[in-house]
Amino acid sequence: MIFAGGIAKTHAAFLLAAMTVCSPQATPTVQMTFTNNAPVEINDKSSAELGSFHISTTFSHTRNEIFTVGGLMESNFAPEYRILFMTETDPVSGLACISPSQISIAVNYAPRIYIASEVARGTCRYTVNMQHEVRHVNTDIITFNEFLPQIGTAVQDAVNKIRPMGPTDAGGLTIAQNRITDIVQEALVRKTEEIEKIRLSRQQMIDTRAEYLRASALCQGQ
């Protein structure tokens, strides 16, 4: 009886340890990719239609100055992320621990350049409008190349603080997975918003009254 009791106590102690401790796991390295697609040219919308688009930049002008929208550059800066998870299940209790095993972030840059349909291809006005919009595209690319590594660093710093979560049952496992996802997403969104402010500030420096007056004077009569 004493021998059996000793076994029971030892077994109980083993289960208690298995249910409360998760094994340390290697922290995954965040992988960043940037795909730079060539701009797509679109020339089937009128100046009035382009003027109805949401335009992020603004500029002041006098009442006597009338500017029409001859071209627009449209792009989307929304990094996508993917997280793979690893679970470690205790065969006795059925409880499991979960941790991230792979994290990747992808930025797919696919700008679209709209030139008003009233502007014929090959004309001076078309060329001037295109050059202006290409400046917007190049500014985006320069900004992304400069600051996208900061996204990877910010997410990596957040991931470095994540420890295996659990042990827990299936319901708790889902909660833990969502919490890990939230940590990655919060770091990604925070840094993305910082870069977006820089990007829009640089784009605003292109869209100025002086620039529009300069461009307008290049193609007299068109």
Task: Write the topology of this structure.
Elements: H1 2-20, E1 31-36, E2 40-42, H2 47-51, E3 71-74, E4 80-89, E5 96-109, E6 112-115, H3 124-160, E7 165-168, H4 170-206, H5 209-218
Parallel strand pairs: 1-5, 2-6
Antiparallel strand pairs: 3-6, 4-5, 5-7
Helix pairs in contact: 3-4
Any overview of this molecule?
- With 222 residues, the protein is α/β, with parallel strands linked by helices.
- The protein has one domain (22-218).
- The protein is built from 5 helices and 7 strands, in the order αββαββββαβαα.
- It has helices at 2-20, 47-51, 124-160, 170-206, 209-218; strands spanning 31-36, 40-42, 71-74, 80-89, 96-109, 112-115, 165-168.
- The strands form 2 sheets. Strands 1, 4, 5 and 7 form a 4-stranded mixed β-sheet that branches. The chain has a 3-stranded mixed β-sheet with strand order 2-6-3, covered by helices on one side.
- Strand 4 (80-89) and strand 5 (96-109) form a beta hairpin.
- The longest helix has 37 residues, at 124-160.
- The N and C termini lie far apart (104 Å).
- Mean pLDDT is 87; it is low at 1-18.
